[in-house]
Amino acid sequence: MGMISEEKLKILTESAKYDVSCSSSGSGRKNAGGIGNGYVAGCCHSFTPDGRCISLLKILLSNDCIFNCRYCMSRADSDVERATATPEEICELTIDFYKRNYIEGLFLSSAVVRSPNHAMEQLLLTVKKLRTEYNFHGYIHLKGIPHADERLVHEAARYADRMSYNIELPTERSLKLLAPQKSKESLLAPMKQLQRERRIFREEKRKGHFLPAGQTTQLIVGASPERDGQILRLTQSLYRQTGLKRVYFSSYVPVVHDALLPDTPAGALREHRLYQADWLLRFYGFDAEEIVGEDGDLSPDFDPKCAWALRNMHLFPVEVNRAPLEMLLRVPGIGARSAYKIMEARRYARLGSKISKKCASP
Amino acid sequence: MIYFYDGTKDAFLTAFLLAYPDEDAVLVSGAKQLSIGQKTVFVRADPERARRAAIRLLELDKDCLHDLDLLLRSGQKDRDTVAFEYFRLIAARGCPVRKMLAEDAVIAAMECIRRVGFEVHRFHGFLRFMECESGALYAPFSPDNDICDMLVPHFRTRLGLFPFVIHDIGRRKAAVYDGEHVFTAPLERAELALSADETAWQDLWKKYYKSVNIPSRERLKQMRSYMPVRYWKFMPEKNENS
User: What architecture is domain A6-227?
Assistant: First the structure.
């Protein structure tokens, strides 16, 4: 039987864990006579002591990399133990974890083994096997390998629910400095390709699947000098122009020592503020330009919505019985859920201050 | 007057008919500390009266019995009062009230229902199956609310051909899918013959759980708020000694 060894599992998990994406939402894939199905809302199966959820089995197929990205612990000239799993080992592990309800699906990634095309082929082989031979219909998030052939990317998207290319560094300049073998183009080109193909697939209502849960990406925060304003503008354009579902932020943790990288972690607060701003972009109708200036950073003292309200005092207080939804959404302390609840409740009765407080609690 | 009933839907509806006109009525399905001089009555389920009450209530709000089902599954101590006040409001207003969030009774009922639904969602994730020699899957757990049968549709679709048992240890009952039928039955304790690899897979899972954690970012409070300690007992990754 192809049970993966504990040692291999440990190496391949530890090199995958700094990827922050974990969500399993957005796919309504049906169980077609085997095991597994999608869960549109997503589902967390456990939580680790760092407060993060385990939804997907997050693992590398291999950490044996020819690239030399400065921030990465699997970089070619780093002195770490190397391991490579077989597609069968990954498939068996996924099925047996899934069956016991440990996980919601697989998040498979890989180092660039031998060449980008070879690494991408191995990833494709694994997910194809899992779908066709193991009859698995649960969630699969597949990481794309930059510089891999277009046809491989296209085929992978037929089997995965979601794919992602990690931009990691917000500007070409930082990318050149810290990840010399990657280029902005090698990351953005496949993202645009997938976006285009997905749109055509949906418009023509073709059979089968093509990335039902779309694409995401990740930006490392604090490894390079970009300001929050720049990061949020990039994020906004990724949502609006490239149609991404999520942009994740990973606050930089020094796992490798390098003269070009800072020695101190960027801290959880900066990451937290960026996520708050990200929510304002996606659910609250804000533009990046309203939140922070291009060369500015988010305030550590106030959340971005509160900071916006303080700059726009002339718009407050808001009359809760008459304000339009767009304005309710902009009141600090009222979340999206509460705003919709207030809209409902005020059809039946006039709301006083006591009531609006109740509606605002979760 | 205090109306004792057995916690079932029919008994609730019977008691509701009796208690509705009584301004000081309190409905109780569990134990209750009585104060001196309080009057009590024990209400037995009367299918005919319950049916009449149901028909009348459905005329006022066609989804209200679904709400009642969820309210009566709640493990909350005051669930009988919450359900009674909510239904009293439906009867008084003569229409669906669930969106009238300016009413305390509605807020309390919706919160109670939300908790039941939330626990179902949580156990879609936190339930842990063990594989038996026969290939069947067995999951013990101890939820706050009476939800074991509500978990079946999700796992039945997902696990396809595997038969499974979801065992509510605290309420001593189980929801069973035998590969063909679904049913609920009382179950004190289960005798298990685990498959040969079960322990090895559990060990791999524990190894994975340990490896994927980032120790330098410890946030125990956050972990516990997402995954309450009372659920840990049946999760292999949180039971290092088992």
Answer: Alpha-Beta Barrel (3.20)
